[in-house]
Specification:
The structure holds two protein chains of two kinds.
Chain A: H1 2-37, H2 42-56, H3 69-72, H4 79-92, H5 94-106, H6 116-140, H7 144-168, H8 172-180, H9 185-193, H10 197-231, H11 250-260, H12 264-278, H13 287-300, H14 303-306, H15 314-322, H16 327-347, H17 350-357, H18 359-386, H19 402-425, H20 430-467
Helix pairs in contact in A: 1-2, 1-5, 2-6, 6-9, 6-10, 7-8, 7-12, 9-10, 11-16, 12-13, 12-16, 13-18, 13-19, 15-20, 16-20, 17-18, 18-19, 18-20, 19-20
Chain B: E1 4-15, E2 18-29, E3 33-37, H1 44-52, E4 59-64, E5 67-68, H2 74-79, E6 80-83, H3 95-105, H4 110-123, H5 139-152, E7 157-161, H6 169-184, E8 188-192, H7 196-202, E9 205-210, E10 213-219, H8 220-225, H9 230-238
Parallel strand pairs in B: 3-8, 3-9, 6-7, 7-8
Antiparallel strand pairs in B: 1-2, 1-4, 4-5, 9-10
The chains are: A mainly alpha, B alpha/beta.
Amino acid sequence: MRAGQLAQFDVLILLLLGALLIFKLPPVMRRAARELAIGQTAGMNQLLFALAAVWLYPRIENAITSIRPKDLIRFPLTVNSMLLVRIGSFFISPAAMIVTAGSLLGAMPILASPRPFIGITAAILFFVIAASLGLSLSHLTSSAALRIGLMIVTAIVIVPLGAVLLASGREAERRLASIVQFTPIRLVTGAATAPNYRMALLSLMTLTGCAALALLSLRWSFSRSLSDQETNRPRSNRAASLIRFPGRLGGLVRKEQNYFRKLPAVWIGLLITLAYSQTFWFGAPHPATFQAIILIVFSTIMALPTNCFGLDEPPEINRYMLFPLRGRDILLGKNMGFAIVVGLQLSVALPFAFWRLGWREVSFGLIEAAALLFAYLAWGNLDSVSAPYKMRFYRESGGGSIIDAIIGITLCSLPGVAIIYLTRFNSELLAVKLVSVLALTALAYLGSLHFAGRKFERDWQKIIYRLS
Amino acid sequence: MEDWDIEARGLTKNFGSFTAVRDLTLRVPRGVIFGFLGPNGSGKSTTVKLLTGLLTPTAGDALIAGESVTVENVAIKRKIGVLPEDDALFRALTIWEHLEMSGPLYGLKREETETRATQLLRHLDLWQERETYVEQASFGMRKKCALAMTLLHNPRVLFLDEPFEGIDPGSSRNIKDLLLMLAQKGATIFLTSHILEVVERIVGQYAIIIDGEIVCQQTVEETINAGRTLEDVYFQFAGRPAMEEMAWLG
């Protein structure tokens, strides 16, 4: 099973990098090389920015393959030795190897610059910084207090930045380039294109200092994560449970909320709506952007409905089976939990949309959200009981089948795309068409609840086996 | 005719070529505490899983109060309370949240759930720790939480897999008293345990399972009348592992 998950994750990375290599990377690299040769840096800056994002994003710290701090703490090893094992295990993942190779390939245009060897050294230091910060971030998520702090800092940085970029339209690329000036990326291209050795070495020294700081932060965050494993025994935070849902399944719904809020994707979706909401201060955006954001938010949290047992440990599934519940009841509880989470994410943008776009556009958005909800749950219930894979708290999920994901995201987005099309380009008998789309997706959902519920009752032991 | 609450008819479970439980037949009358004993890996927990629907038998039937145990049989699940081997708790919920979740699923109103949960947690000396997340709780706390969930809906039949494992002496005493009181009121209790002294004190009947087969089934009264202890009978069938001389140890 673990080997299968690893293979799927690698396929995903390979596909993404493969597509990038074939379609995007060669022209971008050629442009970057041409520019660097004459001392310009815009293309290389963009390339390095994209590579840094790949290194920073915790997904490449593959949760399944790399050894976690809590797995190391019982061994009679010093903190430095444990950190070395941790870093080594990180590179065991073929995905990390691919990213490393891809990054080195991406740095090749620097060879065309006036100072190729200093430039390449600077690029390697830059990747060390990005990888160290990526790992430090993943360590920080082991402590509740640090997670909250990290979330606040991210919100403070990402939301205004996202809002400015979203509101910029065609100016976004230029603004992004100006932001890049304030990152270590500038030091890499600065070293490669410096007019003299003194300036190049100065950039290199500064980058070395940054790398040392990043490594120190990695050491600190690692040792901090070890001590949190030993001493942290948090008590419940009732305010953290988003809504207390009434009724027989209320406890199950709350359980789902508790689990969902430990997934980064949920918070990323919230940050997207928060950033989008801030664009309304600059003026009324095109109504289609509101509908597009709804589509995007659903796609960011796709793993929640399509792998709804992924966060459950085998004993937890045993508990479902001990409860006097049918399979459809269990799925319904999970579905309601998801509906509340996505509802809260989208509700952030609603007052702003009312303010700038009016009730008509908000109604279209709500209908689109309802249709998407039914579609995602309809597909998700079937997918959850057919192809479950293990997910972990505070980590992105990387174990699902890439083919399932592509089919799922395409099928589930269709009702949303249809509603955008109908409301923008085909307004004849609009109400009838919208109700039809909604009714169809609702019917699909009810059907899937029934079939997936029965399948869960038949195959729950297989699900446990796949999650073990 | 005797009123059987738990009945197994030729229960067999194979995992591939390995037979965990072989042609197991037993009957437990209503209101009896039944001890199910055996060494590690003998098939005790598998039997509990088969009797509670957590495993589907390869052959044979499991019946509770005359009704077949299946995944779909929700009515049966309402009648039984199960303390499984792995506790089956949700790691990111608190002890209190488990009970709050459990009550309504068995048809209890919120107020009733809270009243019962409070009493159970106080009885099990878990009240102070009720806001602790299960993943942060000790082994004993998790066991007590699972036991409280088992008892919350006042089930007619209880399946307790190692209920005294990891429990402090005070709480253990309270649990024993509780089980005896429940049996007096007509509840049927099927429990597994390795603590033979405790089992001898509270069970009315017992069976010993070795390598998936029942090798002995009798009442404690019969054992005592034969001038033997439960431990004598257990070692007669289960034997004792050979002692290795480990001069390097100590």
